[in-house]
């Protein structure tokens, strides 16, 4: 579609977890698209925000990011992406994805709220279950909408169970073990209604 005078591919998708759009344009049209959107949004209070704000928003939605939660070392079932993998045809990694689907994942990507005080997790912190370090944080930070510290990370699938042991975890923050609660749904708009509005 054309956005103002700019030809664009527009997707109704957003990394924020709220209703939003992504627009793909040729590099020579970026400045025009930016000024067009700024002018159209000014009467509605449109403001710029940075990558850290975007990161905080995606944490509240339990959205993983490439190179952190989604990497070649994690299988699609581990990362919660298995519903999006169609095993028809031939593609790189198909056999491994089929084996993982049949056996079930050994570990799972999960979201925690963390009882942090003056520091939040950022990644690579150990996740504890009792006296054993059982997993690791892939990313995290302070989530402003829910006003809590959030961590995404991988733990053994067997420890997740039905969610009744949600309070049995700790995450180490700067050498101090902090209570962590396993979430069974995202903090923000768990049913995804706002994204579909």
Descriptive key words:
single chain; 197 residues; alpha+beta; two-stranded antiparallel ribbon; 10 strands; globular
What does this structure look like?
- With 197 residues, this protein is of the alpha+beta class.
- The chain is 18% helix and 28% strand.
- The chain contains 4 helices and 10 strands.
Provide the fold topology.
Elements: E1 2-3, E2 6-7, E3 9-11, E4 22-24, H1 30-41, H2 51-60, H3 94-103, E5 107-114, E6 126-129, E7 132-143, E8 148-156, H4 157-160, E9 169-173, E10 176-182
Antiparallel strand pairs: 1-2, 3-4, 5-8, 5-10, 6-7, 6-9, 7-8, 9-10
Short description:
With 197 residues, the protein is of the alpha+beta class. The protein contains 4 helices and 10 strands.
Mean pLDDT: 93
Query: How big a fraction of the residues is strand?
Result: 25-35%
| DSSP summary: helix tally | 4
Strand order of the largest sheet: 5-8-7-6-9-10
C-alpha Rg (nearest Å): 19 Å
How far from one another are the termini? 20 Å
SSE order, one letter for each helix or strand = EEEEHHHEEEEHEE
- The level of helicity is 10-25%
Report the uncertain regions. Answer: none
Query: Number of DSSP strands?
Result: 10
Give the biggest beta sheet.
6 strands, antiparallel, barrel
Structural class of the helices, strands and pairings? alpha+beta
What spatial form do the alpha-carbon principal axes imply?
globular
């Amino acid at each position: 579609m054309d956005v103002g005078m700019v030809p664009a591919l527009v997707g109704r998708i957003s990394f924020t977890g709220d209703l939003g759009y992504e627009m793909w344009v040729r590099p020579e049209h970026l400045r025009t698209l930016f000024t067009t959107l700024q002018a159209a949004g000014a009467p509605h209070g449109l403001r710029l925000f940075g990558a850290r704000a975007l990161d905080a928003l995606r944490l509240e939605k339990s959205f993983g990011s490439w190179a952190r939660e989604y990497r070649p070392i994690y299988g699609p079932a581990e990362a919660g992406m298995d519903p999006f993998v169609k095993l028809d045809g031939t593609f790189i990694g198909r056999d491994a994805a089929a084996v993982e689907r049949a056996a079930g994942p050994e570990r799972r990507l999960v979201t925690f709220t963390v009882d942090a005080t003056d520091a939040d997790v950022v990644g690579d912190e150990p996740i504890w279950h009792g006296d054993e370090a059982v997993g690791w944080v892939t990313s995290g930070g302070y989530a402003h909408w829910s006003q809590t510290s959030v961590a995404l990370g991988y733990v053994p699938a067997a420890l997740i169970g039905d969610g009744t042991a949600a309070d049995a975890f700790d995450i180490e923050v700067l050498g101090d073990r902090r209570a962590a609660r396993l979430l069974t749904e995202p903090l923000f708009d768990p049913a995804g209604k706002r994204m579909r509005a």
